[in-house]
Amino acid sequence: MSKNKLETLVPPLELCNLIPEGAFADSALIWHVQGSPVGYMKDLERRDELHAERFGVVLPAPTLVEILVELARTRSLISVTAPISGGWQVYGWKTQVEEDRNPAIAALKLWLELKGEGEK
C-alpha cells in the first residue's frame, strides 16, 4: 500500500499529536517525526518496522477500528454514519456530533473531546 493511501487510514499528525501519552500504545501505525535542518520530516510507518536506533518522536496513528474499540470501551460510542453529504458522522453519548470526510478523523476528535484533550 502506498504512503498516500496509508495516510487516509489514520488522522493527520497534527491531530495525533493531541493524543495523551500512553493512549493507543499498541496502535499498528505510528507517526515518526524527526527534526532536520530545513524543518521536520514525518513518516507514517508500521509500529513493528520502527527501528530503535532511529531518533525522533513517535506518536500513535490509530486507525478507525482502533479508535472505535476505545470509544466502545468507554461506552461512549453511539453510532457512525455516512450521510448523503459525503462526510462521516460519529455520535457519542452526551456529546456533540463530530463530522469529517475521513471517519478516523471524526472518531479521534470525538475520543479527544471525551478525554478533555480536544480543541475548544
Concise description?
The chain is an alpha+beta fold and 120 residues long. It has helices at residues 3-7, 13-16, 64-73, 103-115, and strands spanning 29-36, 39-46, 57-60, 77-81, 88-92, 98-100.
Low-confidence stretches: none
Quaternary assembly: single chain
Radius of gyration: 15 Å
Helix content: 25-40%
What's the structural domain tally?
1
How do the strands of the widest beta sheet line up side by side?
2-1-3
Number of helices: 4
Structural class: alpha+beta
Distance between the termini: 35 Å
Described by strand count, sense and barrel closure, the largest sheet is: 3 strands, antiparallel
Mean pLDDT: 81
Strand % is 25-35%
Order of helices and strands: HHEEEHEEEH
* Strand segment tally: 6
Outline: globular
Q: Could you explain the architecture of this structure?
A:
By secondary structure, this protein is of the alpha+beta class. It has one domain. It is about 25% helix and about 30% strand. It contains 4 helices and 6 strands. It has helices at about 5, 15, 65-75, 105-115, and strands at about 30-35, 40-45, 55-60, 75-80, 90, 100. The strands form 2 sheets. It has a 3-stranded antiparallel β-sheet with strand order 2-1-3. Strands 4-5-6 form a 3-stranded antiparallel β-sheet, covered by helices on one side. A hairpin with a 6-residue loop joins strand 4 (about 75-80) and strand 5 (about 90). Helix 3 packs parallel to helix 4 (about 105-115). The longest helix is centred in the C-terminal third of the chain and has 13 residues, at about 105-115. The chain is globular, with a radius of gyration of 15 Å. The model has no long low-confidence stretch (mean pLDDT about 80).
